[in-house]
């Protein structure tokens, strides 16, 4: 016996039925997967992606279809004149109706409970390093690899890229949707452009773990450089970095982190996209009176200043690569030779290392094979030292150079220092002057004092009073005037 049409439920139609099947499928599969994840934790980002994005999408799609079906059905009935606009009369004293009502309430509560758990876990999943670093594997590989080998390897991507609070969380997810789209349709840039313009201000990210008042005194920096000659001749420089910092209100901030003291504001205008050329700097100190330093001979006009973007200096203007460091072949080889991962007894290993690392390769696989082949040909009798050298140099390549994403040290200059990028010398090259003729210092001793330097890996006689820099190669007094990065680029100066 069929019910009269107008008494039948609005969801009795093909579209809604399909929706119900989809929703039920999504619900059961989702609940099962969430349970499995809670017990055994998924490592694979794709399983997470399926559980927390695809399955909920199916569930939501199903619910939407049920609704659409009902609306279409209602319209159809209205057109046929069979629609009765009365709301259903519920009588809970009737056993059948009571049972249906109870079932609906229990299902709804269960659904809400699982959605809350699922939503919470979905939130954690999309904040995880696995999700950020591994889902779009090829795109994020350079940043993820560098991150894993950095001092921040345990910090988590979102600590720097999203930070606390709901507003940035929402912004990041909306931005993330665009990123998923551009990855799926292969529309992303290679390499990903830096600087990142919508990066959250450092005060709201870095400051959750570091703050300027906590820096003081000096830290030690010791580096050994190996020449690209027959003997891989070493030269060591040991110095104290005057990191300074301190509390502006107590004893006045000093040293390198003085820039970040609460009573100091430094603004600048960059002439290029990468912020490598800084012709204009405005300092407002404790007295509140601003003073402008400009590159002598290249002063900006008032119109140019008015039209330019003025950026306030923060941590990122020096630490732009706190975690995604792509080292130059020179630096990476020096580090490996210093630690012994690479045997400096192999003749010309520095030169050969530079040669294989700077080859033109289309893919990482091709590069790793070429490194193996070229080094094997160069040291046919080296035995174990050769095996070690191949493995060390392949590791250097895989950590620092990413041909598929066109990423290497060249495209991502690090602003810390001044040897192969302008870095501090963007402002501290001794050519930025204010109207009174005061110059932003280029005095080597204002930032660090050299306590030992010379040939060999171990420099024994330490002079804490500070030494004058001795350039390892005789270039007269050139280092006093010329910027270091005019000659040094990350590979030996020829
Ligand atoms: C210690 C803080 C920090 C952490 C942790 C961190 N990043 Fe970054 N990341 C930065 C900064 C700062 C920049 C901006 C560099 C610039 O503007 O020049 C950046 C830039 C990027 C870029 C743009 C390309 C580039 O290299 O400049 C990508 C992509 C990126 N990060 C992905 C990630 C991923 C994925 C993770 C986690 C695996 C992560 N980041 C963890 C600080 C961090
Ligand atoms: C989640 C906490 C956290 C956040 C956020 C964070 N850091 Fe760190 N940072 C650390 C830890 C932990 C270390 C390692 C400390 C150590 O080695 O003593 C570190 C080390 C460093 C170092 C020293 C690196 C070295 O070679 O020893 C620098 C520089 C640094 N952080 C800069 C930044 C900057 C810039 C930001 C913001 C973009 C930032 N950090 C955000 C936790 C954090
Ligand atoms: C003017 C450039 C500059 C600014 C701005 C700056 N730093 Fe540094 N920071 C340095 C230099 C240079 C060093 C020493 C690095 C080295 O030895 O390689 C350093 C060292 C550090 C270290 C390691 C210190 C230690 O004692 O081991 C941390 C952490 C750090 N900075 C975090 C920050 C944070 C967070 C900010 C923003 C509040 C910031 N820095 C702003 C230049 C800067
Ligand atoms: C955007 C421009 C700019 C950049 C980049 C910059 N500085 Fe500075 N720095 C200044 C200005 C301006 C002063 C103040 C000059 C003055 O008052 O005569 C200053 C002063 C200093 C001082 C002296 C602080 C004191 O004790 O009074 C040190 C040390 C210093 N900077 C280190 C660095 C280091 C290290 C870097 C690179 C990691 C760097 N700066 C990058 C603009 C800059
Ligand atoms: C404005 C601050 C500042 C001034 C001025 C400065 N330096 Fe440096 N220098 C740095 C910083 C910061 C580093 C650390 C780089 C790093 O941690 O990789 C550095 C690193 C170095 C290194 C090691 C280079 C490397 O990348 O391995 C040498 C050598 C050096 N400085 C020599 C000099 C000499 C010589 C002068 C004077 C002409 C000078 N510096 C002036 C800030 C400065
Ligand atoms: C006129 C070019 C020129 C300038 C400017 C210059 N250098 Fe050099 N530098 C060289 C040459 C040439 C060598 C020896 C060849 C080589 O090994 O790369 C060298 C070697 C070095 C080495 C030994 C390690 C190495 O790479 O072999 C250090 C350290 C160094 N320079 C630091 C600096 C610093 C710091 C500055 C800036 C204050 C500077 N140089 C400015 C030309 C220059």
Question: Can you describe this structure?
Answer:
With 494 residues, this protein is α+β, with helices and mostly antiparallel strands. It has four domains: 5-126; 130-188, no CATH class; 213-322 and 413-486, no CATH class; 329-405, no CATH class. The chain has helices at residues 14-40, 45-80, 95-126, 129-134, 137-148, 157-161, 166-184, 302-307, 329-339, 349-357, 364-378, 384-400, 425-428, 444-447, 478-481, and strands spanning 219-226, 234-241, 265-269, 280-284, 290-295, 311-312, 432-433, 448-455. A hairpin with a 7-residue loop joins strand 1 (219-226) and strand 2 (234-241). Helix 1 (14-40) packs antiparallel against helix 2. The longest helix has 36 residues, at 45-80. The N and C termini lie far apart (96 Å). It binds heme C (HEC) (6 copies). One heme C binds at residues 242, 254-256, 258-259, 266, 268, 278, 281, 283, 293, 313, 317-318, 416, 423-424, 426-428, 438, 440, 446-447.
């Amino acid at each position: 016996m069929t019910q009269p049409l107008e008494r039948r439920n609005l969801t009795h139609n093909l579209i809604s039925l399909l929706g119900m099947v989809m929703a039920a499928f999504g619900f059961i599969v989702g609940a099962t997967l969430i349970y499995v994840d809670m017990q055994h934790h998924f490592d694979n980002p794709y399983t997470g992606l399926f559980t927390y994005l695809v399955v909920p999408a199916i569930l939501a799609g199903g619910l939407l279809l049920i609704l659409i079906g009902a609306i279409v059905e209602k319209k159809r009935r209205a057109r046929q004149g069979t629609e009765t606009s009365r709301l259903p009369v519920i009588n809970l004293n009737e056993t059948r109706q009571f049972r249906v009502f109870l079932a609906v309430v229990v299902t709804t509560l269960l659904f809400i409970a699982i959605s809350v758990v699922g939503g919470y876990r979905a939130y954690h999943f999309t904040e995880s390093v696995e999700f950020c670093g591994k889902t779009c594997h090829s795109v994020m590989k350079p940043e993820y690899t560098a991150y894993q080998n950095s001092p921040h390897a345990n910090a988590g991507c979102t600590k720097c890229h999203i930070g606390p609070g709901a507003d940035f969380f929402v912004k990041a997810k909306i931005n993330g949707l665009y990123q998923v789209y551009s990855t799926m349709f292969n529309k992303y840039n290679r390499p990903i452009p830096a600087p990142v313009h919508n990066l959250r201000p450092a005060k709201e990210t870095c400051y959750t773990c570091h703050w300027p008042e906590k820096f003081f005194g000096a830290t030690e920096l010791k580096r050994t450089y190996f020449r690209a000659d027959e003997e891989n001749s070493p030269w060591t420089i040991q110095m104290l970095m005057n990191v300074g910092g301190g509390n502006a209100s107590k004893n006045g901030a000093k040293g390198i982190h003085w820039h970040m003291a609460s009573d100091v504001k430094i603004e600048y205008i960059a002439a290029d996209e990468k912020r490598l050329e800084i012709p204009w700097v405005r300092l407002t100190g404790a007295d509140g009176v601003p003073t402008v330093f400009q590159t002598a001979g290249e002063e900006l006009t008032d119109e140019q200043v008015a039209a330019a973007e003025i950026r306030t200096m923060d941590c990122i203007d020096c630490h732009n690569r706190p975690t995604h460091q792509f080292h130059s072949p020179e630096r990476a080889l020096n580090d490996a030779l210093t630690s012994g991962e690479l045997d400096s007894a192999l003749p010309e290993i520095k030169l050969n290392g530079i040669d294989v690392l700077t080859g033109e390769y289309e893919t990482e696989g091709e590069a790793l094979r070429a490194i193996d082949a070229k080094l094997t040909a160069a040291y046919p009798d080296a035995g174990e030292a050769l095996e070690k050298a191949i493995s060390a140099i392949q590791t250097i390549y895989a950590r620092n150079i990413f041909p598929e994403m066109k990423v290497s040290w060249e495209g991502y200059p690090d602003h810390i220092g001044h040897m192969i990028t302008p870095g501090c010398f963007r402002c501290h090259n001794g050519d930025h002057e204010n109207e009174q003729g005061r110059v932003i210092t280029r005095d080597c001793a204002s930032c660090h004092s050299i306590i030992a330097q010379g040939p060999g890996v171990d420099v024994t006689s330490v002079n804490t009073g500070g030494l004058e820099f001795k350039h390892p190669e005789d270039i007269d007094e050139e280092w006093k005037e010329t910027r270091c990065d005019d000659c040094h680029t990350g590979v030996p100066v020829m």
